[in-house]
Amino acid sequence: MTQRRWLRFCAYACVGATGTGAQFAVLYALVSTKMLGAVAASCIGAVFGAIVNYVLNYHLTFRSTGRHAHVAPRFFAVAATGIAVNSVCMFLLATWLHVPYLIAQCAATACVLVTTYIANSIWAFKTHTA
């Protein structure tokens, strides 16, 4: 991995930490108030996190010049895939293996980080050159 790509990955991870913070806040609030179970609460939190991540990645990580009408649908397609992976991980860990939900969420977040970075780098935020 080149130095430029490594620095961009680090920026992506830092931005992701902000979105993950939003996700954990929603997850904790919904589970601790017994409004939802861990898997459903994690999914809703992931949607909030994805919105935060889109704005920050667009402006900071990728410094995109692409139109939102082009970039946003791609980003949210990647995010939807990430949410699906997150949901499967949460179901397996929290529901099936009975891992405490916050620990399960940490593991699920790690599973999603690398794959979404790659997809966003090579597809969602890629600008067209004619």
UniProtKB/TrEMBL annotation:
GO terms for biological process: polysaccharide biosynthetic process. PANTHER family: PROPHAGE BACTOPRENOL-LINKED GLUCOSE TRANSLOCASE HOMOLOG. Belongs to the GtrA family. Keywords: Membrane, Transmembrane, Transmembrane helix. Its main location: membrane. It comes from the Bacteria. It is found in: Membrane. InterPro entries: GtrA_CellWall_Glycosyl (IPR051401), GtrA_DPMS_TM (IPR007267). This is GtrA/DPMS transmembrane domain-containing protein. Pfam families: GtrA_DPMS_TM. Residues 12-125 form the GtrA/DPMS transmembrane domain. It is a multi-pass membrane protein. The chain crosses the membrane at residues 9-30, 36-56, 76-96, 102-125. GO terms for cellular component: plasma membrane. The lineage of its organism: Bacteria, Pseudomonadati, Pseudomonadota, Betaproteobacteria, Burkholderiales.
